[in-house]
Amino acid sequence: MEYGFPNMPFKATFKEFSKKQASEYKDWFISLIPERIFFLQRAVRRSPSHSDWSADLSPESLLGLGEWFVSQVRTRERTVVEMQELRQKIPDFIEISSQELSGETLNKAIDVGIYLSEVVKVNNQNIEWVAFVNNKSSVDYGQPVLSGFGKRVLNPLLIAVNMAYGVTRGTLDGERLTQLYKVWSDLSRGVAPITPASLLLQAKKSKKAT
């Protein structure tokens, strides 16, 4: 059975949303969360290796979910039109993959992103769903996101879809959801994530101190 996701209640794209539409879409999106988590758990349990997985919103549950999601990522050939549209947006010296995530993979990614967001929200304080309408040029505009991370917001759709692309490139594995949970949990407490840039800055400070 194909893994589906309900159609949006508006015909407009996120970029075309008014603030009122963005708020209404956010409310609709939140109303779907219990149902989406139910469908996600049912799908995961259909896999023999994860038949006992429970969507209990614990951080520990993310490892099993991540392993399952990695096994579910599928791609399809991009159409000629899709390749032409991408080439118009991307410089010629950058190679474009002929592969795109399948529709079913995208639908699963949405629910995986929703579940990750709920785990972050339930296990940390002062996290809430909001409609992002601060900056119309942002990729997050019009979409439901989690706030409570300082100036950052957590967009569940983009997070999980980017993870799926990483899986196709062989750069990400099933532990990614657990890693993301730690990063966003730390941000909710004001702890900056460790990045190559932050490590370099720390090294420079240590060198000056000596």
General description of the model:
- With about 210 residues, the chain is mainly alpha-helical.
- It is built from seven helices and five strands.
- Strand 4 (about 145-150) and strand 5 (about 150-155) form a beta hairpin.
- Helix 2 crosses helix 6 (about 175-190) and helix 4 runs parallel beside helix 6 (about 175-190).
Question: How many H/I helices?
Answer: 7
CA-to-CA gap between the ends? 63 Å
Rg, Cα atoms, Å: 19 Å
Helix content: 40-55%
* Average predicted confidence as pLDDT: 89
Order of helices and strands: HHEHEHEEEHHH
* Shape descriptor: globular
Secondary-structure content class: mainly alpha
State which percent range the strand residues make up.
5-15%
* Unreliable sequence segments: none
Describe the main β-sheet briefly.
Answer: 3 strands, antiparallel
Strand order of the largest sheet: 3-4-5
Count the E strands.
5
List keywords for this structure.
210 residues; mainly alpha; 3-stranded antiparallel beta sheet; two-stranded antiparallel sheet; 9% strand
Would you spell out the secondary-structure blueprint of this structure?
Blueprint (H helix, E strand, L loop, with lengths): L18 H27 L15 H12 L2 E3 L2 H10 L9 E3 L1 H20 L5 E4 L12 E6 L2 E3 L1 H14 L6 H13 L7 H14 L1
Antiparallel strand pairs: 1-2, 3-4, 4-5
Helix pairs in contact: 1-4, 2-4, 2-6, 4-5, 4-6
